[in-house]
Specification:
- It is a single chain.
- By secondary structure, the chain is an alpha+beta fold.
- The protein has a single domain, classed as OB fold (Dihydrolipoamide Acetyltransferase, E2P) (Beta Barrel), CATH 2.40.50.
- The protein is built from four helices and five strands, in the order αβααββαββ.
- Strands 1-2-3-5-4 form a five-stranded mixed barrel.
- A hairpin with a 2-residue loop joins strand 4 and strand 5.
- The relative contact order is 0.20.
- About 5% of the residues have low confidence.
């Protein structure tokens, strides 16, 4: 019985390790987009033509992200997403450089940004 219990406990520990997200400090460059519009509308859901809509969504607290030139999406979390994206509103549809810890949650890249500024 002890061996069975130990085996089950060991298997549970190994399985739980697979769901742990490891953070890595990274710099991500790309456009600040509204995640939902960008995913649904493709090219029509980003860029200067979509700035008004995306800004409105940001002010309502919609999840915002950085869309890189190679098509990767990094949802912005933490202080920059707080208070209905108050720190992101002026950066919508702008090319930015964000620094912070990147993790994966439910198959989605997430950046806990410590700084976001317009790209130079």
């Amino acid at each position: 019985m002890r061996k069975l219990f130990a085996s089950v406990l060991a298997a549970a520990m190994v399985a739980s390790l697979g769901s742990i997200a490891f953070a890595a400090e990274m710099t991500v460059k790309g456009e600040v987009v509204d995640m939902q519009c960008s995913a649904k509308k493709g090219d029509g859901g980003r860029g200067e033509a979509h700035k008004g809509c995306a800004t409105s969504c940001a002010k309502r607290g919609s999840p915002m992200a950085i869309l890189t030139s190679d098509g990767k999406v990094y949802q912005i979390a933490g202080d920059y997403a707080a208070n209905n994206n108050a720190k992101l509103v002026d950066l919508v549809a702008t090319q930015v450089e964000a620094k912070g810890n990147v993790t994966q949650k439910d198959g989605q890249n997430v950046i806990e940004a410590t700084s976001i500024a317009a790209a130079k």
